[in-house]
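Case study: Phosphonoacetate hydrolase.
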Amino acid sequence: MNENLPPCPACSGVYTYEMGALLVCPECAHEWQPAGDAADTTADGPKVIKDAVGNVLTDGDTVTVVKTLKVKGSPSGIKAGTKVRNIRLVDGVDGHDIDCKVDGFGPMQLKSSVVKKV
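Here is what the predicted structure looks like once written out:
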């Protein structure tokens, strides 16, 4: 038991531990963000995702890629200026928080830091 970590908000278990940026309860397997990360949340609690210039992104937005991106298995990659329509915000892996379909490449995840809202 770590005295500095809060108890689990789901089951009040006291055996919470840190796993990367998350806190985890081994009793009920609940994972949550520590309360200190409130800068990226609104009053309701969901995370606010912003584009490369600071605009708030929402599901269904159209964005433009601001720099050329390399894509594994593709000789050309995604060029800067490519429009991506109807994005979906997700809790992705390694900072990839946008789920979308890019014309000519198919479904993929992008980082919000490489797109700009149209």
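For the exam, be able to explain this: Strands lie at 17-19, 22-24, 31-32, 63-65, 83-84, 88-89, 96-102, 106-111, 115-117.
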